[in-house]
Model the fold of this input.
Amino acid sequence: MSDDARPILFFDSGVGGLSVVAPTRALLPAAPIVYAADSAGFPYGTKSEVEIAARVPALLGRLAERYRPRLIVIACNTASTIALPAVRAALDLPIVGTVPSIKPAALASRTRVIGVLGTEATVRQPYVDDLAARFAGDCTVLRYGSAALVEIAEAALAGEAPSLDAVATELAGLFNQPEGNRIDVIVNACTHFPLLEGDMRAVAPDGVSFVDGGPGIARRVAALTEGQAWPRDSGPHRLVFTRLGEREARIGAQLRAHGFAEPETL
Done:
């Protein structure tokens, strides 16, 4: 097949989507990957719906034109909950979105109190209300939007050790709410947050577990590409930023050890 080198394109505002890339690479080790981070627009979680709805489809159109992917993963809860329908309408290829894993959290919860930890933009979306009503109707669903955890995760991948005190302060935004002391499952509703799961486990009360959408997205990508040919040697994966500054250069240096080429700019 002449076009078997077509990559899977992952898109996020920053590096959070790498938490989705990892389980996908585990299932599809031969898949060539383009990881695109909108560093010029980062962070999305504090932007308005209008800004995100205008920015994301336009950027993905440019990325699709340049890299000709076989499939796009919007590895960002905020972009998915706001812009996914517009992206699917604009691009004629499979688009996989990222949604908060409220259903598996509700299935796992024994106390019937679950926390949804995301960006400010994600946790206020009506889509989250709908998921909670459909899949967690008998649960108390507490939400907290944390811009700080997104920054901590970005800095961690650039080589800065996370502060456990800072992580604990953000989790307290859930646990200190009424009934928050009964939370036994937290939905990491931002793809950045699984990158900090070890730190969050270290400061969370005993018995609290975390769920995220990465493994489910990987299975969906595998199903959509089943039977397709992959290149024998995909070479290094590609890393793309919309703005390449000092932090992005440090992240690129860290990712070279994980099979990514030197960063490039869109």
